[in-house]
Specification:
The chain contains nine helices and eight strands. With 214 residues, it is of the alpha/beta class. The structure holds adenosine monophosphate. Adenosine monophosphate binds at residues 9, 31-32, 35, 52-53, 56-59, 64, 85-86, 88, 92, 163, 172.
């Protein structure tokens, strides 16, 4: 099964993708995570992407499409993919169609996580993660049981994404509305788009997704 999770930054795509990965053995493909790894490694792609990401703009399609092509041919992803943060533009969606057609695999569901813009700024600007295991935390909504200690691994160092500052979040939301929202009619026309209420509690969002994928 191949799925796309669509929605603005902070809608919970990554959280839901991780859970789907654990429960269904699907492979999460996050272009944001891939880009952050490139930035960290100091690669050429990382150098090109860093400033763009910090401004809250989208990285050029050609870079993203080349990165994704390598993932789609991963031999270990036998059960299928959850695409998290890709596609983000119509040309990316068209490139994905070609890649899947070449492999002879379908795109089964596109699930939109619907959330209000006002909520996004609060959600994103409070989030951070454990530097050791990557578990996600939030200043308001998801605090570790003991302040400063990760419940998942006992780690005591945490990081915040450089693009999660309130100023950048506005640019990221604008990019979503301008460049990514046109994908909603693109997939609706094919009859594979379904929406869930991304404002609901995390467990509720997950069970709504499960109902869609069956
Ligand atoms: P994310 O972790 O999905 O929120 O992505 C973080 C940032 O990486 C975005 O704000 C973009 O700058 C860049 N990015 C991630 N995925 C894509 C994509 N599919 N197309 C263009 N830029 C992307």
């Amino acid at each position: 099964m191949n799925l796309i999770l669509l929605g603005p930054p902070g809608a919970g795509k990554g959280t839901q993708a991780k859970r789907l990965e654990q429960q269904h053995g699907l492979t999460q493909v996050s272009t944001g995570d891939m880009l952050r790894a490139e930035v960290k490694s100091g690669s050429e792609v990382g150098l090109q992407a860093k400033a763009i990401m910090e401004r809250g703009d989208l990285v050029p399609d050609a870079i993203i499409i080349a990165m994704l092509a390598a993932q789609v041919s991963r031999p270990d992803a036998t059960k299928g993919f959850i695409l998290d943060g890709f596609p983000r533009t119509v040309p990316q969606a068209e490139a994905l169609d070609l890649m899947l057609a070449e492999k002879g695999v379908p795109l089964d569901h596109v699930i939109e996580l619907r959330v209000r813009d006002e909520e996004m700024v609060a959600r994103i600007s409070g989030r951070y993660s454990c530097a050791k295991c990557g578990e996600g935390w939030h200043d308001q909504f998801k605090q570790p049981k003991h302040t400063g200690v990760c419940d998942a691994c006992g780690g005591t160092e945490f990081t915040r994404r450089a693009d999660d500052r309130a100023e950048t979040v506005a640019a990221r939301l604008a990019a979503y509305h301008r460049q990514t929202a046109p994908l909603l009619p693109y997939y609706a026309a094919r009859g594979i788009l379904r929406a869930v209420d991304g404002m609901a509690a995390m467990d509720r969002v997950y069970s709504d997704i499960e109902k869609i994928i069956g």
